Amino acid sequence: MDPNYLQSLHEVLAQALLSDAKLINSVSFPDDLILPSFSWLFQAMAQLNQVYYKTPECIKALCIILANPVDPPVRVLAAQEMRQRILKNNGKQWSLLPRTERESIKSNLLGLVQMETSEFARRAAAQVVAAVAAYELSHSSWPQLIPFVTRICCYGNVLDRKVGIYLCSHVLEVTMDGIEDHVDGLLTLFEKLLVDPRSLETRIITVRAVGALASHIDDFACIQKLLPMIFKVISQSVLSQDIGDVEQVFDALETLIILEVPMGEHVSDLATSLLEYSVNRSAGTEIRVLALSTLNLLIRSKTSKIESKSMIERVLTDLMPITAKPQSVYDNEISRSALQSIEGLFVSLPPCQVYPIFHSLIKMYTPSPDPLHRRAVMIVLGVSVEGCSEFMTPYMPEVWSFIERCLQEPDLGVRKATCETVSRLSVWLEDECASRHSTLIPALVNLIHNHDTQLLACSTLDGLLDISGEISDQCLQLAIEQLSCLLDTAPLTVIAIVIGAIGRAAGAVKGRFLPFLVPLMHRLEPFLTLTREGEDADIRAITMEAIGLFAEAVGKENFQPYFHGMMKQAFEGIDIDNLKESSFGFFASMARVFGKEFAVHLPNVVPPLLATCEESERDEEVSNFSGASVESEESDNVVHVTSGIVVEKQIAADTIGTLFSATREHFLPYIERCVLVLVSLLPHPYDGVRKNATESLLKIVRTFCALGKPEEWRPGSFMPALDQNMKDLISHTFRLLLHRYERETDESVVYSLFVGFAKAIYKIGPGFIEGRVEQLCSIAIQVLNQEAWCQKDSDQDGAQEHRADDGFMLVSSAGDVVAALASVIGPEFAPAFNTFYPSIAKYYTKDHSRRYRSFAVGCLANIVSSIKSAVTSHSNDLFQLFLCALKDPEAEVLSEAAFGIGALIEYSEDDLSSQYPTILTALWPLFDVTPSTPAGRLNARDNATGVIARMILQNHAAVPLDQVMPVFIRALPLQRSYHENEAVFRAIFHLFRTCPAEAHPYIGKLLKVFMHVLDSNGPEHQLTDSTRRDLVILVNALHGQSPQEMQEAGFAVFSIG
Q1: What would the pLDDT profile of 1018-1040 be if each residue is shown by its tens digit?
Q2: What are the two backbone dihedrals, phi and then psi, of residue 625, each rounded to the nearest 5 degrees?
Q3: Count of CA atoms in the C-beta half-sphere (13 A) of 662
Q4: pLDDT tens-digit readout, 810-859
Q5: Is 675 left (phi over 0), alpha (psi -120 to 50) or beta?
Q6: Whole-angstrom Cα distance, residue 149 to residue 163?
Q7: Cα–Cα distance between 311 and 319 in angstroms, integer?
Q8: Nearest to 421, CA basis, from 442, 438, 396, 445
Q9: DSSP letter (8 states) at residue 622
Q10: What is the model's pLDDT at position 1018?
Q11: DSSP 778-843
Q12: Residue in 99, 63, 57, 56 with CA at minimum distance from that of residue 80
């Protein structure tokens, strides 16, 4: 080795260290605002890469520097650099060294590791040995390594054993090549070293080695017997309070948990130990956080071992107090970690096992005079909602009472926690929150004028107003007026939330927003002219989005005065950073509102949309340092910067589809290029872009078909003729999207694909599914059976799958496709239904979530309605399932079950009249409603009324009309499920035709119902045209028979002739 080369390399390494030290020292002073020059470091690294690291000789030179006992910091750096050279390009430089030199270096490294007195140098050298082993063992060219390691691990000297296990650990972390035959011997060695009597460090490194070995093997039985010893070492390391040691053992433990090493009866003891570490305030923040993190992983991974009542209670009672003590930054970190573990209970375990225990703690904590207890309960209540929302409904009266008290608490912490919990409830329990608008909104309005609670209260109002479709006019006015007051005085962060909240309120209440339009447009005008980057630009974008929602709420006639001015603002935004996507979104809103009138703007709108979709996302290549190309051991690729262009592409792709569906034939000059651009986005790396491109392509297909004005399709074999261009577009698009499905890894993209397929099937009918039924059935069954490519990465085991709503939207969309196919194919879908029935019905079990149960019942009910008499062979199975579902605790499921059993009564060729008493007994509780009954329960009552109507139509003689008619008539008029009016009025017509004596006692009540549904000022879509005609005929007949009663009912004002 050239001594000059060696000396100069040493000097450059020293220079790099000196530069780095100067850099560190210069930024250690908070008052020093001038960053030091990086030039020294750049020069040193550039010189290393460009001069010394070009040939394999550098590895030999670095090894010599590492072995030199002089200048330990340079030795450590030499080891690090040597390791990088060896690993780079899969050991390319290392392999170019002569074999004799490689053998010499290997021998020297082992001797150095064993004899080295400097701890840092020894560890650095051990990492080099592991890097060499990654290459040599894969080429079967270092058979001496593992015997050497195991031999020194058995020496009597403590340092030798520590060095040996340290080497072993590092080697196992990089490779298993050539070690397969040594597994049994290593396990025997680990069993001894885990109880090494003289060195805790040896025991700790052994735990790390066990974790590394576990990553390479499939049979974990050999690891199981080591678990008690590993847990004991973990306890010893926690007692030592050396954070480095604790991190090592917890990392290894988490590896074992992630690898699903069976822990059996040890899980409960491990969980108990982790809880003890977590609550031990003398253990130190970092150790407590590590213990909580591991506990969280254990809870989510070993659910069946954690779900005992005593363990759930222990976790909640031990961790809840921690959540309420944010006395410092460190305590906040512990509180967050404790909350994550508690949340793990709620989302991973069956809510019926967790929530009752928590609710008993609510009762215990809420009377406490200590506000920290109430705050703890409220915080945990917030994290419980995601996993337990479906199970909470029976408990909600008590919960609401607690929440409403806490919103008026004198303690600031309690009020803030309550706001956050209400925000979560508004996401997961929409109907419950909507039913409490009259109390929640005034309470939150009181908090928005308090500086300490303003931000949180406004954010909570934002969530509530998003679900305010049925909010009272009084509450709506209070919320809008009070939020508007903040536009002049609040900080920009609050103003942004306020504007968004008002926009979402407009989207929810629709036409009822009109009284607020003019004053708000005036108030928001200043925000449309903000041009500075940062918060100003964000508020301008949010304002554009809100005004778009205003327009969609009030309609084009009312928004017309603002249209051209707002379009000008949107066009200006295209050229301003961070405003382009808001402009695109505004164009979509305006197109939905103004329809074909928007077409005049297409020449100015479409080009920037296409340009954005085609824009490159890669900025100029940048290296790690300016002026030097510093190589990374992980990758030789340069760094590419991806900008916010992906978000703009996502919005642009969505807007293209909206523009075509709104402007229709006016968009045709742009359609070919738009389709090509959208197709090019299907394989985009960002899922949001793929999702919107998929949705827009299918929207284009539906719109293009509608423009052709095809003959209306009918269920069965009738197929309206489609234009050849339409057929080509369907064929081309379907093929591309099916190809995308087979490779798609994101569930949300496949969900959008399936929803789009279902809409296209309903819209286009047989023309869309011709020649594609088998493929559509195949992909639907894959998703229903959790076998799609995008579902294969799920790490939930089968036991956990039914406990959460993960994947529900995708499964539900597959059901939509099946129901759509059944609606088009009709009774001929029966053979396919034989396949689909078990794959759908399996989601109705007590262990599945409310949404899964509702999906299963609703999907089957829709299929029954489509295949009609062909359902007969499944009548018994479906009857039992629907009857069971009529006992479900959830209103949403009850509603679907009532609809399903009604459809079965109507269409099955089996005579179900013998089951009428059983059905009526199951239906009876659904008629027990009050003025405050939630909407979901009213839906169920309406559908139950439809069941009775179908029973009357099928066999009124089997219905005890003397008992049923009072209940049936009292349930009218229907309040929610207007589609059931068809069956209801057919039953009424039937009674008047076949047994008028049964109907006449209720004529006064029925006339009021008739007047309600015929009132032109009443709710829309209560009756179809044919039912309305038949009802008018009946009313005319009754008018001739009982003119006095008709007059008293108010029918004189109707023109019914």
Answers
A1: 787 899 999 999 998 898 888 77
A2: -130, 140
A3: 22
A4: 999 999 999 999 999 999 999 999 999 999 999 999 878 888 999 999 99
A5: alpha
A6: 9
A7: 12
A8: 396
A9: B
A10: 76
A11: HHHHHHHTT-SGGGTT----HHHHTTS-TTHHHHHHHHHHHHHHHHHHGGGGHHHHHHHHHHHHTT
A12: 63
- Write down the H helix ranges in 27-98: 39-47, 57-67, 72-87, 92-96
β partners of residue 639: 622
d(CA 608, CA 937) in angstroms, rounded, equals 48
Report the percentage of the chain scoring pLDDT > 90: 58
Backbone conformation region of residue 642, classed left if phi is above 0, alpha if psi is from -120 to 50, else beta: beta
Q: Are 61 and 85 in contact (CB under 8 A)?
A: no
**Rounded to whole angstroms, how far apart are CA atoms 687 and 647?**
11
Q: Is 769 helix (H, G, I), strand (E, B) or coil?
A: helix
What residues pair up with 460 in beta bridges, in sequence order?
none
Mean pLDDT value across residues 740-750: 92
SS (H, E, C) 335-384: HHHHHHHHHHHHHHCCHHHHHHHHHHHHHHHCCCCCHHHHHHHHHHHHHH
- CATH top-level class of 437-554: mainly alpha
Q: Which residue has the tokens 């329960």?
A: 937
How many whole angstroms separate alpha carbon 638 and alpha carbon 626? 13
What is the tens place of the pLDDT at every residue in 366-407?
888 889 889 999 999 999 998 888 788 889 999 999 999 999
Return the domain boundaries, the chain.
1-28+35-142, 437-554
Residue range 897-932, pLDDT digits in tens:
999 999 999 999 999 999 999 999 999 999 998 877
* Total count of residues recorded for the chain: 1057
Give me the pLDDT at residue 643, please: 60
Task: Record the pTM.
Answer: 0.80
Name the CA radius of gyration of the chain, rounded.
35
> Sign of the CA dihedral 1047, 1052, 1055, 1057?
positive
CA-CA distance, 373 to 429, in Å (whole number)?
Answer: 24
| Angle, vertex CA 261, rays to CA 257 and CA 262, nearest 5 | 115
How high is the pLDDT of residue 629? 35
Q: CB–CB of 226/210 below 8 Å?
A: yes
Cα separations in angstroms, 169 against 112, 129, 149, 163, 721: 17, 11, 10, 10, 70
- C-alpha–C-alpha distance, residues 672 and 909, integer Å: 50
